[in-house]
Amino acid sequence: MKVLLIEATGNVGLRLVSALLTHGHNVVAHVRSAQKLESLLTESVHRQLSVIEGSALDANSIRTAILDKKCDAVVNSAGLAAVALWGKSDLPRIVAAVVEGVRQAGAERKKPLRVWFLGGMGALHFPGESSLLSDHVPILRDHCKNLALLKSLPPNTLDWSMLCPSNMDPESSNFTVPTKSSHTRLTASAQTPPLWKDSWLKNIPLIGKIIVIAMNMSRYGTTLEQNADFIATDLETLDSQYIGTQVGIIDASK
Ligand SMILES: NC(=O)c1ccc[n+]([C@@H]2O[C@H](COP(=O)([O-])OP(=O)(O)OC[C@H]3O[C@@H](n4cnc5c(N)ncnc54)[C@H](OP(=O)(O)O)[C@@H]3O)[C@@H](O)[C@H]2O)c1
Fold this sequence. Notes:
The structure is a single chain. The protein is of the alpha/beta class. The chain has one domain: Rossmann fold (3-Layer(aba) Sandwich). Helices cover 35% and strands 18% of the residues. An 8-stranded mixed beta sheet has the order 3-2-1-4-5-6-10-8, sandwiched between helices. Helix 1 (11-22) crosses helix 9 (224-234), helix 4 (59-69) crosses helix 5 (91-109) and helix 5 (91-109) runs parallel beside helix 7 (141-151). The radius of gyration is 18 Å and the shape is globular. It binds NADP nicotinamide-adenine-dinucleotide phosphate. NADP nicotinamide-adenine-dinucleotide phosphate (NAP) binds next to helix 1 and helix 5.
């Protein structure tokens, strides 16, 4: 598949370059600094990319890149959510611009494009409920705002998914193609964290669900490489089971 990768210079973006190429995708990197990207990759990996300079806040630049390069799918790894409630981040404006650029390109093609966004674990549902984890533990609210935008889109606008990891650690800072990882593939589920450990403690008024979330949280740490590989594997087909939903993941082997 031909994939437009929006920003490739961050923690996830760099691993996505390696994972997408390893899975046989053609990669068009849409970055705000081509020079920075080149400095972060080996010559042999960089040579395999097509690079376009542009802003992730510019819907028209994204639309043009998709149409000119004939991309089939898009992955947005631009922006970083504010952790604290009072923190500021460009992420909601970036996601709004990406949605608009991809929507316009899909409308011109008369076919919605496949798009992966990165979210956070707080945008997943508390198992068995329609409330989000962030409704109980208010962190990373930008991801919830972005999820609300995606869910408000009319049908057949975007074939979107939002990957919702907890903390991601690096395995390595050598971005090789093919990738080398000693870790297993992730186990995933739509909407809720997979393999959630339920507890009667959730019934304690006011603090019960917070306790259960805290008990579970540390089990959901994964690596940046595992998440990049998850997206690259999913993009081997346009017929993904995760279209139109947020996706929880866990390293079930840990
Ligand atoms: N890392 C984690 O453990 C973790 C866990 C859960 C969820 N997430 C989510 O995953 C996503 C990616 O995280 P990350 O760790 O890869 O972040 P990161 O390392 O900070 O990378 C952010 C990327 O976004 C680009 N960027 C930042 N502001 C921009 C702007 N205004 N316009 C265009 N590009 C901009 C950066 O480009 P430059 O290099 O040019 O600055 C960089 O390529 C975020 O949404 C984050 O909230 C991360």
